[in-house]
């Protein structure tokens, strides 16, 4: 069974003359642990696709299954909890909470879920993310690369089955971009997490297990690039 199944998703924004068909009957599946790059021109529908997969927005029609769960059939509260436990989001803008330290930002999703963070895993993450010496710093005291690493830590702390990343390296230089991608790959291999990552960077896309291209709301699967 695929970890992610997207079935015949259509998304139309607006109505009448202002209607925009952002996704036109998009279907694909992703096995557990696969690292998938989503490429395509500006306005082609990539972010819309990621928002549907992560259930941040509802499609006009179609279904999304994460680990066999039909997300759009869930009630709002159940969906919020399911998403918090199973999906990690990483955005181009790091979206950190400025009043919280590095460590507090990372464990925030766990606290939201009324759970206690796994201390061993937190230490492991801080080490892998090279943030141990910055754990008590605030976001304003960090570089862009460090802030993105905190955002990655926050996405990984719940060990979600699915990680959705929208241009995670968009604000980073090439050195930091490579580090961020390496970290994501390491996570996907070590914890068998499935990653769907939008990128405009061709060389980053080429390092993915598989590339999906979105053009004008339709999807082309370029299959596996590496064996
Ligand atoms: N909330 C919205 N209301 C109306 N139209 C929208 C909305 N969000 C996106 N669109 C339109 O849907 C289409 C797809 O947008 P989307 O943001 O998914 O593209 P994208 O491929 O992610 O672009 P970029 O690479 O520039 O971020 C575009 O034509 C966009 O103008």
From TrEMBL:
The chain positions of domain ABC transporter read 4-227
MF annotations from Gene Ontology: ATP binding; ATP hydrolysis activity; transmembrane transporter activity
Annotated GO CC locations: membrane protein complex
Cross-referenced InterPro entries, in alphabetical order? AAA+_ATPase, ABC_transporter-like_ATP-bd, ABC_transporter-like_CS, MacB-like_ATP-bd, P-loop_NTPase
- What UniProt keywords are attached to this protein's entry? ATP-binding, Nucleotide-binding, Transport
Give the matching Pfam families.
ABC_tran
PROSITE patterns in alphabetical order: ABC_TRANSPORTER_1, ABC_TRANSPORTER_2
Q: Which family does it belong to?
A: Belongs to the ABC transporter superfamily.
Which protein is depicted? Putative ABC transport system ATP-binding protein
Q: In which organism is this protein found? A: Hespellia stercorisuis DSM 15480
């Amino acid at each position: 069974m695929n970890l992610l199944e997207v079935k015949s998703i259509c998304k139309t924004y607006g109505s009448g003359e202002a209607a925009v068909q952002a996704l036109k009957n998009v279907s694909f599946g992703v096995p557990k642990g696969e690292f998938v790059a989503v490429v395509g021109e500006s306005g082609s529908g990539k972010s819309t696709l990621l928002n549907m997969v992560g259930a941040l927005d509802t499609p006009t029609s179609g279904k999304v299954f994460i680990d066999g769960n039909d997300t759009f059939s869930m009630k709002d509260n159940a969906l919020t909890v399911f998403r918090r436990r199973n999906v990690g989001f990483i955005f181009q803008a790091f979206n950190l909470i400025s009043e919280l330290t590095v460590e507090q930002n990372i464990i925030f999703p766990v606290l939201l879920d009324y759970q206690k963070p796994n201390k061993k895993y937190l230490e492991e993450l801080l080490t892998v993310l090279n943030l141990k010496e910055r754990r008590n710093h605030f976001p304003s005291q960090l570089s862009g690369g460090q802030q993105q690493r905190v955002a990655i830590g926050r996405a990984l702390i719940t060990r979600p089955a699915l990680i959705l990343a929208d241009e995670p390296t968009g604000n980073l230089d090439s050195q930091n971009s490579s580090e961020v991608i390496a970290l994501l790959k390491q996570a996907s291999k070590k914890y068998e997490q499935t990653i769907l990552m939008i990128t405009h960077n061709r060389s980053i896309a080429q390092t993915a297990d598989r590339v999906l291209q979105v053009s004008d709301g339709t999807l082309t699967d370029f299959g596996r690039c590496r064996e």
